[in-house]
Amino acid sequence: MNFTELTIKQTHEGLKNKKFSSKELTLAYLQKIKKSDLNAFLIITEGLALAEADEADKKIATGNFSELTGVPCAIKDAILVEGEKCTAGSKILENYVAPYDATVIKKLKEKGAVILGKTNTDEFTMGASTENSAFGVTKNPHDKTRVAGGSSGGSAAAVAADEAVYSLGSDTGGSIRQPASFCGVVGLCPTYGAVSRYGLIAHASSFDQIGPFGKNIDDVKTVFNAIYGKDKMDATSANLEFRISNLELKGCRIGVPKEYFMKGIDKDVEKIIKNAVKKAEDGGAEIIEISLPSSEYALACYYILGPSEISANLARFDGIKYGLSEPAENLLDVYLKSRGRGLGAEPKRRIMIGTYCLSSGYYDAYYKKAQEVRELIKQDFKKAFEKVDLLFCPVSPFPAFKIGEKADDPISMYLADIYTVAVKLSGLPGLSLPAGKIGNPSAGSGHDGLPVGLQIIGNYFKENKILAIASQLEKML
Ligand code: GLN
Fold first, then answer.
1. Which of 123, 188, 203 to mutate to test the pocket of ligand 1 (most atoms within 8 A of CB)?
2. What family does the entry list (predicted)?
């Protein structure tokens, strides 16, 4: 096996046993990224990566190092890495240089991580395909005519194509789980508050959460353990220790929400998800059909609350403080020109929707109503978790779609989020586990060979239950 195809554990073993140095490994990854035509990376942080690799090799020589020391990773370009550009996929931040490290980056650096570069994202993480990036789409490594998903499409594609051992992304309404599903890698969106958001460029602050992508459950667990925890710079971060869960498939109560298998789901996706549920049952799990009756409102609710928060969060990009500043006659003109030229269609659309929903006269009918619906959606999950340990459902109603297929139709793009937003409205953790590839029985359907992810949802701060069951299941799928 090539040394750029290894998992974290295998890479760590290789470094420990001096099969290769971090420098050699880093150089090999950098070369691979430069040759790649996927457009997974927007920025290659070569100087930083090589310096970190040298540092890691020194630590390894002393024997005092962690499982992540010297292991090359990729970071979504919405997370700040000090001294490096951070564009959030937007023209308005094209030349913006991060003045400090996000807390997750600080933590990874302390573990000796090697940061190869910053990965592509939909502009300000708004989208489900990276087609909203101002810097071109990321191609799916399984079929380059298709999208890698989004918004963390670059981070998912980088891991799937062995351009990084692992990566970080962010999930506001599905942006870790959906690209993980489309690219056939593991992606974990932690409970809201499990991981500090400090240094993540905000999309919708009551939803945003950083999480890892990896080649298997073990890798994702290692990275999650390295990044979670209370942070004084993020008041919403939780002070919790994640204890190892000894939950076993045998006896585990798995809920299957019936509303997630209704009209519109691709037949091949449904087959793969139902097969995964069956495997869990064969492994001794108790399968319980449950109902989440308010989920039908989740998408509408998300596309009111999300844009409302966006309209406030993006006000800071005014042409004065950050990034692009267009010369103009007066202050208003600076705002209009900088935002007009710097922001793309999707952020503009959401700023307008959000401003409308928050405006006096409409606030009660939209924002307030959506907050009430958000509570009903949370209650559905609360009731479900009185009966079950975990929920199993699809991540996406369809596999990776063709580049361009939905790009001009925002509503059809929003529908891609149908199975992922309720989890974020509730602040719950969710994971995408590769459950299989669309295979021969559907030959001719045009999407043979594409990966499909199973979504495993847990109760608040039960990441370790998700990971325990996912790790048993991954050997069976
Ligand atoms: N696709 C969703 C959106 O466009 C989710 C994005 C995300 O999780 N960052 O809002």
1. 203
2. Belongs to the amidase family. GatA subfamily.
